[in-house]
Amino acid sequence: MKKISLGLALHNHQPLGNFPWVFDDAYQHAYLPMVEELARHPSIHASLHYSGCLLDWLKAERPEFLFMLKELADRGQVEIMGGAYYEPILPAIPDPDKRGQILKMSAFIEKEFDARPGGMWLAERVWEPYLAKVLSEAGIDWTLIDDTAFKMVGKSDDELFGYFLTEEQGHYLKVFPIHKYLRYSIPWHEVGSIIENLRSRATEEGGRIAILGDDGEKFGIWPGTYEHCWEKGWVNDFFKAVEDNGEWLSTIKLGDYVDRYPPAGRIYLPCSSYDEMLEWSLPQQLSWEYTHLKQRLEDEGRADIIRYLYSGFWRNFMVKYPEVNRMHKKMLLVHNKVHRARTVNEEGCGLDYLWRAQCNCSYWHGVFGGIYLTDIRAETYSNLIRAENCADELLVKRDSGCNLYMMDYDGDGRQEVLSDGREFSLYISPYEGGSIIEWDLRKKDFNLLSTMGRRPEGYHKDLLAKQGEGDTPGGSGIKSIHDHVRVKKEYTGGLPVYDTLPRSGLMDRFISAEETLESYEKNTFVDTGEFAGQPYECSVDAEPDCRVKLKRRSYVQTGMILTDVILEKTVTLMEREGRLDIVYKFTNAGKTTLNTIFGSEWNINLLGGGHNDNASYKVEGKDIGDAHLDSRGVIERTRQLELINTFLGIEMMLNLDRPLTIWRYPVESLSNSEGGVEEVYQCSCLLILFPLHLEAGRDTGFQYSWSLGK
What is the pLDDT, as a whole number, of residue 484? Predict the structure, then answer.
């Protein structure tokens, strides 16, 4: 009789920074139901993975769940897979952290489940060939990689029903292919059709294995799946169908399969991930074109062409999104500090905070919010700052003051200015308009400039095309989350608004008197100067306070006239006072009078989205109406403005040297999530307006400061 095995590998994860209710909702609707269903079907075997982020929450909040897992493991029904503890994209982090995180997970599993894991789950299945050596050295025997990678080197679907042996520098690793058919059909398709597909793959030898490797959240958390999987009983029906066909179909743990069967051959795999991830990593227009090209070919039944179509590379997210690159390079900088501090004192060097900050969820974007999720992005930076604080306590000997230096911190081939103090850390990019790209409140473990620009995404085209269409598909099944664009709530915003520059601090704008808050917010205004995002000359002075002087000479257009303007700005980090001083000087180097409005732009993230009652503006002696940080409006002639988040314990005071007008509005991006496309708060934009009437040969200026409330 023809036979085949089925490998069920389920990965469960919640990112650090997710709200507690999100963890609990996932537990109640996906994690607990699956384990309970497995307990009711003792003949169904599975390989289960839980990220360290999730395991920590389960151990603290739902310890009974770990006991349930151990019972299943003790009776040989499930195996607990290893992984890198805080679910990093392994190629994106340094090798010592790869090894350390894998060993931390293996030690946890051995302690809790009395078994050392032989295999591991790769975060987002991002594979690069050299990982074979790293994983092998960390005691890992096998892992799973999407069948995309195997097909890239010429393997056909019919050849992918086993595992292969790969190596790097003589270090060997077994690799299982994850079958895209099963990933797309479970739990979306009818049970009978999946069983028949497996039957068609069975052989007389009976040594084949078909592998489902996918997220556990698809069984209850993704839209429509709780009703489908549990209330209507799809999972029970599937398990029962496997049991009913037990004479030819059986489930097997992947570790047991490795022990019983030899490899299907030797293989060397290219850099890869699952198809969708590779598509998402492309520039937005190419991503849209590539996705729709493949869909068209699938509709035409052109499998002969599709098999040769592969594109994208995960690391390109660090090119696609400057914010991802900044975060990643900050992580590398902190890694160097932490591992130097580790040689001084293993305890208290900040290593675990560093590892937490390597959690992958804020370093990319696809069908889930990723880098667009403000709280998760903020949590990543908070852990980086905590790690850096720990390391600096061991490495830096100082009572006060700050350390000022220049280096190419973000890997763009140009030097940035970095100022590290006990109160603040400040990163300034002379090349990007002399803007401040990171501002850490070190005692609050918070980066005020953890922002995200409004960027075009490939799915925006589909969203606009589908406005008015329903989300509920026809037929008896439900659609995969990858199959369509959903709208979380009705989107009536018209064409999305996009930014041309990253959302930083101390950005220099010149606008005409005809511009309005609305035109500025919608980015339809005309910047009449050539300063924002342009290179500035830079000099630094660390005594007595950290001082950075930035200068650019260019043109400002007024009507048909171009005026030669010298803009100088000095940033002084008053570490002892916990204050940041900004001084502007404008010189009219032209031959005509300059009449314009200068705007100093700041984009500050104090987690003010969702009309957060803890996050607000305050202007002494003025009623500004809606004072939430995601409100918009014009504050006329003020010398002071406070930004407050009482939950974070942060009060930022802006003090101006004269009464000036300030525009404010929330920066909201249109981004995708598992729940659908929605507008997501990224930061609050402030524009300090300074009218300029400057005769030829004359100069003028103004100044202001930011300080921390006590």
Answer: 47
- Residues 60 and 57: their CA atoms lie apart, in Å, by 5
Each as own residue / partner, the long-range contacts of residues 346-352 (CB below 8 Å, 24 or more positions apart, any chain) are 348/390, 348/393, 348/394, 349/390, 349/391, 349/394, 350/386, 350/387, 350/388, 350/389, 350/390, 350/391, 351/100, 351/387
- 367 compared with 118, residue with greater pLDDT: 118
pLDDT digits (tens, 9 = 90+) for 129-166: 999 999 999 999 999 999 999 999 999 999 999 999 99
Residue 285 CB: number of other CB atoms within 10 A?
Answer: 11
CB 243 within 8 A of CB 43: yes
DSSP 218: G
CATH 3.20.110.20 domain span(s) along the chain: 4-273
3-class secondary structure, 7? strand
Class of domain 505-708: mainly beta
Domain 4-273 belongs to what topology?
Answer: 7-stranded beta/alpha barrel (3.20.110)
What global pTM score does this model have? 0.94
Q: How far apart are CA 508 and CA 533, in angstroms?
A: 8
C-alpha closest to that of 571 among 558, 552, 584, 587 = 584
From-to residues of CATH 2.70.98.10 in the chain: 505-708
**Residues catalogued as catalytic:** 124, 215
Q: Locate tokens 């990543």: which residue?
A: 380
